[in-house]
Amino acid sequence: MNGTRARVTGLTGQSGAGKTxxxxxxxxxxxxxxxxxxxxxxVTEKGQPCLKELAEAFGGDIINSDGTLNRKCLGGIVFSDxxxxxxxxxxxxxxxxxxxxxxxxxxxxQGEELIxxxxxxxxxxxADDLCDLIISVTADEDIRLRRIIARDNITPExxxxxxxxxxxEHFFVNHSDFVIKNNKTxxxxxxxxxEVAGKIKEYYNAKANG
Length: 210
Hints:
The chain is of the alpha/beta class.
């Protein structure tokens, strides 16, 4: 790539909409995937400075006896209190963004030309500023509710609380270059993702040659 930065496509959307399937399709189409959820876990591992900051902000109860983060305890604190959720995000997002930028640089140096940044909180973390294009995956609320309950084994009330902390479909539609609506089967979703991946590769090729 002659030291050129890879093209970064952001992938986000509503909880339960089907981002995982879309991410897999893009990986099959030559995109190196950066998973922000994995990075979030890395920056909160035992001994990390981010974890120390979280403990100072939310108390020692969020740390297990082995020094790891008690995610269930932390989630119980922040998902029922918007102000505490903002506080959590203010601590963790800078660590995540720093690591994402480092990963983009590493992949670019390795010769990767196409990166998919899979980030459920892409907009909340301002990670959209790192992206050339953005894809959002959406679905009707009743369908997402069924998927989340089955996938995460949580109550409808807990799922709805999670939805309330996220942006509306209208927001995603207005802030994305591509929107994939996923109200049907995984096969239909995969076909839509394949089509979008092709269009994005064509777009980047045209930009490179234009």
